[in-house]
C-alpha cells in the first residue's frame, strides 16, 4: 500500500494539507504549489483565511500575485473547516510551540491539532509535524493521540517529524534550497515522507528516528543561542575596556579555520533561538541533567534589553538628561533587518523597560505602521515618520533593528544623540560625538 502512495506523491497527484499558515506554513504551501501539487491550507485564524482567499499575502516575501493565481486557478484554498482534513492525502503541521509563563514547553497548539487530526484520520494519511519540540514528542505525545482513531501507524497511516528550517529574509536560502531532515515512526513512514519532501527541496536527509530529528532542530538553535550569548558577554567586557567588539570580530573572522563569526545585538528575537533551547532544558530534567550552558546563555541573552536601556540611561546622563520624561525614538521593531516579523523581538522588551523608567517612547519601522497588541505587550503606538524635524525632537534615537532602507547618514545628521546597538555606522560611528555604541 505504501508503494501506491509513493507513486501518487511522485506523480504530484497527492492533495497536500498544511495546518498553520504562518511564517513556516505559508512558504511551504508556496513550494508545493510551485512544484505542481494542489494544496489546502488550514488555520484557526479566519482573518488569515479570508485574506488568502482574496488572493492576498500577509507575509512580505510571499508574492500577492502568486497567491492570487493559485486561488483563481483552484490550485490552492484556505479554510478553517478542519473536517476537510479527510479530503487531503498529506497533513503537514506547522503550529506554534511557545513557552509558558514559567519557561516550560507549551504544547497546547500541537496537542489540540493532533486531537483534531485523530478525529479526521483515515487510512492512507501521511502526517508530518514540523513544529519544533523536545525529543520524544512525536512518539510519546502525538502517536498515542492519533492511534486513538483505531488506525495503526505504519500500516493504516504514516507519521513522522521533519523540523522546519525557515529563515525569513534570507536571500541566499529558501524553503526549497535548505536541506530537509526527515524521519518516521517506522521505516515505511520515513520512506514516504522522504519521497514527499524530495519533490520540493534540494536535498532530504533521513535520520533514524523522530527523536533524532527533534534533537537536530534543538542542536541547531542551541548552538546559535550559546554562541550569540558568548559574543554578547564579550561585548559587555570589551565595552568596559574601550574596545570595539565589532572591530574584534572583523579581525577574528580573517582566520580561515576554527572560527565562525557571531554578532552581538540588543537581545534575541524570532520564534526559534529565544524559545527552542528551553524545550531541551525542560526535557533534560526528566533525566536529572542540568543544562548549564543553555541556561547561562539564556540568562545572558534575555538580559541584553536591560543592558541596552542601561546604556541609554548613561548616554542621556552624559548629555545632561534624565531617563524620566526623556523622548526616545526606537528604530526597528522586527526581530531582524528587512522582515515583517516581530515575534519575540527585543525591541518590544526595550520599549516596555524604557516606558517603565518613565521615558516617552515612539518608534519607526517601515514594516509595521502600528504596533498591534501581542501576547506579552499591549502597545498602541504608531510608526513615526522619519523626517529631519521629527528626528530633532527626540533626546535619543536607539537603533534596534538595522533595516537597509534606513538612511543612516540622514539619521546621523539630524538626531541629537544615537545609541547604535547594531553597528549600523561601522567604525566611523566611533568618531561621531552624537553616536554611542551599545
Describe the structure in your own words.
- With 438 residues, the protein is α/β, with parallel strands linked by helices.
- The protein has two domains: 2-210, 3-Layer(aba) Sandwich (Rossmann fold), CATH 3.40.50.720; 225-437, NAD(P)-binding Rossmann-like Domain (Rossmann fold, 3-Layer(aba) Sandwich).
- It has helices at 2-10, 25-34, 46-53, 64-72, 108-120, 137-147, 187-198, 210-240, 245-252, 277-284, 292-318, 346-356, 388-393, 408-414, and strands at residues 15-19, 38-42, 76-79, 90-93, 126-129, 158-161, 180-182, 204-206, 327-331, 360-364, 396-399, 418-420, 435-437.
- The strands form three sheets. A six-stranded parallel beta sheet has the order 3-2-1-4-5-6, sandwiched between helices.
- The N and C termini lie far apart (60 Å).
- CATH architecture of the largest domain, by name, is 3-Layer(aba) Sandwich
Count of alpha/pi helices = 14
- Biggest sheet features: 6 strands, parallel
Determine the CATH topology of the largest domain. Rossmann fold
Q: How far apart lie the N and C ends?
A: 60 Å
Task: Using the coordinates above, name the CATH class of the largest domain.
Answer: Alpha Beta
Mass-distribution shape: globular
> What is the number of E strands?
13
Overall pLDDT score: 95
**What Rg is obtained from the alpha carbons, in whole angstroms?**
24 Å
Number of domains: 2
Helix content: 25-40%
The assigned structural class equals alpha/beta
The CATH superfamily of the largest domain is known as NAD(P)-binding Rossmann-like Domain
Strand order of the largest sheet: 3-2-1-4-5-6
Low confidence ranges: none
Query: Which band does the percent of strand residues land in?
Result: 5-15%
Order of helices and strands: HEHEHHEEHEHEEHEHHHHEHEHEHEE
Amino acid at each position: 500500500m505504501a508503494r501506491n502512495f509513493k507513486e501518487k506523491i511522485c506523480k504530484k497527484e497527492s492533495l497536500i494539507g498544511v495546518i498553520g499558515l504562518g511564517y513556516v506554513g505559508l512558504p511551504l504551501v508556496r513550494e508545493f504549489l510551485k512544484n505542481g501539487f494542489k494544496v489546502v491550507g488550514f488555520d484557526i485564524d479566519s482573518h488569515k483565511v479570508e485574506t488568502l482567499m482574496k488572493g492576498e499575502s500577509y507575509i512580505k516575501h510571499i508574492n500577492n500575485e502568486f497567491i492570487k493565481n493559485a486561488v483563481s486557478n483552484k490550485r490552492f484554498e484556505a479554510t478553517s473547516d478542519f473536517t476537510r482534513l479527510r479530503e487531503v492525502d498529506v497533513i503537514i503541521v506547522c503550529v506554534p510551540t511557545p513557552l509558558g509563563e514559567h519557561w516550560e514547553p507549551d504544547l497546547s497548539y500541537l496537542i489540540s491539532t493532533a486531537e483534531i487530526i485523530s478525529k479526521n484520520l483515515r487510512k492512507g494519511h501521511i502526517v508530518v509535524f514540523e513544529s519544533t519540540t523536545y525529543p520524544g514528542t512525536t512518539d510519546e505525545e502525538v502517536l498515542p493521540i492519533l492511534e486513538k482513531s483505531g488506525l495503526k501507524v505504519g500500516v493504516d497511516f504514516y507519521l513522522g517529524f521533519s523540523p522546519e528550517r525557515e529563515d525569513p529574509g534570507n536571500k541566499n536560502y529558501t524553503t526549497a534550497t535548505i536541506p530537509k531532515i526527515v524521519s518516521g515512526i517506522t521505516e515505511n513512514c520515513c520512506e514516504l515522507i522522504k519521497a514527499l519532501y524530495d519533490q520540493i527541496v534540494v536535498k532530504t536527509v533521513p535520520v533514524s528516528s523522530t527523536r533524532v530529528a527533534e534533537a537536530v532542530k534543538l542542536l541547531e538553535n542551541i548552538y546559535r543561542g550559546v554562541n550569540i550569548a558568548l559574543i554578547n558577554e564579550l561585548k559587555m567586557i570589551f565595552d568596559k575596556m574601550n574596545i570595539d567588539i565589532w572591530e574584534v570580530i572583523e579581525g577574528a573572522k580573517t582566520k580561515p579555520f576554527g572560527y565562525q563569526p557571531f554578532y552581538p545585538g540588543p537581545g534575541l528575537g524570532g520564534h526559534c533561538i529565544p524559545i527552542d533551547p528551553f524545550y531541551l532544558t525542560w526535557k533534560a530534567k526528566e533525566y536529572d541533567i542540568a543544562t548549564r550552558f543553555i541556561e547561562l546563555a539564556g540568562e545572558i541573552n534575555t538580559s541584553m534589553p536591560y543592558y541596552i536601556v542601561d546604556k541609554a540611561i548613561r548616554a542621556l546622563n552624559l548629555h545632561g538628561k534624565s531617563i524620566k520624561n526623556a523622548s526616545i525614538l526606537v528604530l526597528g521593531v522586527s526581530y531582524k533587518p528587512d522582515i515583517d516579523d516581530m515575534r519575540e523581538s527585543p525591541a518590544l522588551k526595550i520599549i516596555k523597560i524604557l516606558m517603565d523608567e518613565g521615558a516617552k517612547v515612539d518608534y519607526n519601522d517601515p514594516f509595521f505602521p502600528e504596533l498591534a497588541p501581542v501576547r506579552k505587550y499591549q502597545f498602541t503606538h504608531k510608526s513615526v515618520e522619519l523626517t529631519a524635524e521629527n528626528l530633532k525632537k527626540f533626546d535619543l534615537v536607539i537603533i534596534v533593528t538595522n533595516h537597509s532602507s534606513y538612511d543612516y547618514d540622514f539619521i546621523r545628521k539630524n538626531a541629537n544623540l544615537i545609541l547604535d546597538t547594531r553597528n549600523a555606522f561601522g567604525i566611523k560611528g566611533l568618531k561621531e560625538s552624537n553616536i554611542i555604541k551599545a
